[in-house]
Write a structure and sequence with these properties.
This protein is mainly α. It is built from 2 helices and no strands. It has one domain. Helix 1 (about 1-20) packs across helix 2.
């Protein structure tokens, strides 16, 4: 699980850097991250729909 710790630390450092250097960059980064998670949520919903269709067969 060390890779999760490294990712968390890197994300934390990036957020600190963005906040200190340019708050608008932080906002843009968080917006992009939010869009990524929205697309992941949509993909999960589509996969669940496909599973339910196959289970109905």
């Amino acid at each position: 699980m060390w890779h999760i710790d490294v990712l968390t630390t890197a994300l934390d450092l990036m957020l600190d850097y963005c906040l200190l250097t340019n708050p608008l960059r932080l906002w843009a980064f968080l917006t992009k991250l939010d869009r990524h998670f929205e697309s992941v949520d949509e993909s999960i919903k589509e996969i669940k729909e496909l599973i339910s269709i196959f289970e109905a067969l």
